[in-house]
Each structure stands twice: as C-alpha cells, then as structure tokens.
Design brief:
Keywords: Kinase, Membrane, Phosphoprotein, Transferase, Transmembrane, Transmembrane helix, Two-component regulatory system. The protein is of the alpha+beta class and 273 residues long. Helices cover 51% and strands 16% of the residues. The strands form 2 sheets. A 5-stranded mixed β-sheet has the order 2-4-5-7-6. α1 runs antiparallel to α2, α2 packs parallel to α7 and α5 runs antiparallel to α7. It is extended. Bound molecules: adenosine-5'-diphosphate. The site of adenosine-5'-diphosphate (ADP) has 22 residues, from α5 and α7. Adenosine-5'-diphosphate binds next to α5 and α7.
Length: 273
C-alpha cells in the first residue's frame, strides 16, 4: 500500500501519539490527586477523635476538677472516641488490603438463605438494642445457591444491616429480601429510617463520605463501610445500588451470581477382575 500523502500520514501518527500520552498523563494526575485527597481525609478523620480525647484528658488533669459525675462522663466520651479510632484503623486496614488485591475473592457455592439467617442471628442483640425488628422475607424455602466469597458477603450484609440500625428509627423495621433473576440473585436491605437526600446518593459509596445528617447526629462510624461494601461487590463483578426517600427510609440492593449446586459423583463400585 502506497500512501498518497505520506507527510499527512506522519502528522496523523504524531497527533495520535500525543493524544495517547496526554490521556496517560491525565490519568497519572488523577491518581496523584486521589492519593493526596485520601491522605488528607485520613489525617482529618483521625484528628477529630484525637483532639476530643486530648481535650477530655486535659480537663481531667486540671487540679480544680472535682465533679465526680462529670469526670465519669468525660471518661466515657474519651472511651467512645478511642473506639472510633480503632474502627477507623480496622476499616482502613480492610480497604487497603482489598484495594491492593492482597485478599483475593475466594469463590464457593453456598446457600445465600443460610448466610442471611446466620448474619441475622449474630445481629439480633444489636437489633434489640436499637429497638428495631429484623425480618427476612423468605420465599425460597429450599435455599438458593450463589457463587461468591462467603466471608466477604457476610461482611457486606453486616455493614448494610448495621447501617440500617444506625440510621433507622426507634421502633422501626429492617427487612431483608431475596429475589431471583435470570443468572443472578438480588438481595435487598430496607429500612424505614432517616433516609438520604437525593443530592447525596451519587457520593454515598465514596470513602469517608458521610451526609451532614449523620455527622450532626453524632452517629459513630468511619465513613468507610459502604466503600468496603462496593469494593467487595465490584470485585465479584456484580452491582450495588441504593434508592431512598429522605425522611422515609432507604433500600440497598446488590446482586450475586447464581451458583449451581454440584452434586457429588455417585459411588461406582470398582469391578474386581
Ligand atoms: P458510616 O456509617 O461509617 O458513616 P458508611 O460508608 O457505612 O459510613 O455510610 C456512609 C454514609 O451514608 C453514612 O454516614 C450515612 O450518612 C449514609 N448512610 C448509609 N447507610 C444509610 C442508611 N441505611 N440510611 C441513611 N443513611 C445512610
């Protein structure tokens, strides 16, 4: 093939090369900004509880401080902030391990109904503490097999149910529903709590993102729970979404791949010659 306009061809090639390089540089810049923001978020999130603890300790160290009741309250508050720091460290550790691919997805086939019931049992006490009724709308008595990482999906369920308690209402209900689609199952966790304003929905799964409501209500949390959930579901090549009506409640739903039950080989007797 002989080109009619070789100079134009070379020009075109150089243009393409330059545009590709520009895309690469933009991507590097984006990653760099992401890293910077991430670090500044972390230090900000650590500062708040640390300053609070420091404040309570300083107050208690004051020679004039005599009020025993108040001292007990300050210690309680300091202890809550210590808890907050340890949650943060645990969640940060988890998300960085997930993102570096250090913990791979261990697929196995199991009945999702059994896992949901297990998680519900383990969270029954917490539900009582929040005065929330935890229910499972089960239609498939025989159980439905999924192909997924059982422990990681347990974590997803725990995080979503835990949020439904934190942002739920006193005397409310958290319902878990299971639906079968063609190749997938859909699991939904629904609460009738404070709900989420529409403008926040697109940012909900970002690391450290918390709505103003949850911050002002002083609800404990790292802001990493949903980021961990999203990461786990996407690592399974599945999807997660949320719908919510502010003031009325929210539904978080995620899909999993259906797993066919593998029947064991029948025992064929060995023929002796
Ligand atoms: P955390 O709960 O530790 O703040 P998450 O990542 O789990 O962090 O959630 C991020 C934010 O999304 C929460 O701070 C809260 O504002 C909002 N959110 C999550 N789940 C719910 C829910 N079920 N109802 C209302 N708001 C929620």
């Amino acid at each position: 093939h002989v080109s009619a306009d070789p100079i134009n061809d070379v020009e075109q090639e150089v243009k393409e090369w330059a545009s590709q390089k520009k895309t690469e540089i933009d991507e590097l810049r984006r990653q760099e900004k992401f890293r910077r923001d991430f670090l500044s978020n972390i230090s900000h999130e650590f500062k708040t509880p640390l300053f609070a603890i420091q404040g309570y300790i300083e107050a208690l160290q004051d020679d004039d401080f005599e009020d025993k009741e108040m001292a007990a309250q300050f210690l309680e508050k300091a202890s809550k902030n210590v808890d907050r720091l340890s949650y943060l460290i645990k969640d940060l550790d988890e998300i960085s391990k997930l993102e570096s691919g250090e913990i791979p997805i261990n697929y196995s086939k199991f009945k999702i109904n059994d896992l949901i019931k297990e998680v519900m049992e383990s969270m029954e006490m917490k539900a009582k503490k929040h005065n929330i009724k935890l229910t499972f709308k089960q239609k498939y008595d025989e159980g439905i097999y999924v192909n997924a990482d059982r422990e990681k999906i347990r974590q997803v369920l725990v995080n979503l149910i835990d949020n439904s308690f934190k942002y739920g209402k006193d005397g409310g209900e958290t319902g878990i529903s299971l639906f079968t689609l063609h190749e997938q199952v859909l699991i939904e966790v629904t609460d009738d709590g404070i709900g989420i304003e529409e403008k926040y929905l697109p940012r909900l799964f970002e690391r450290f993102f918390r709505t103003d409501t949850s911050r002002s209500r002083q609800i404990g949390g790292s802001g990493l729970g949903l980021a961990i959930v999203k990461h786990i579901i996407e690592a399974h090549q599945q999807t997660i979404n949320v719908r919510s009506t502010d003031g009325l409640g929210s539904t978080f739903g995620f899909t999993l791949q259906k797993g066919k039950q593998i029947l064991p080989f029948p025992n064929i007797p060995v023929l002796k010659s």
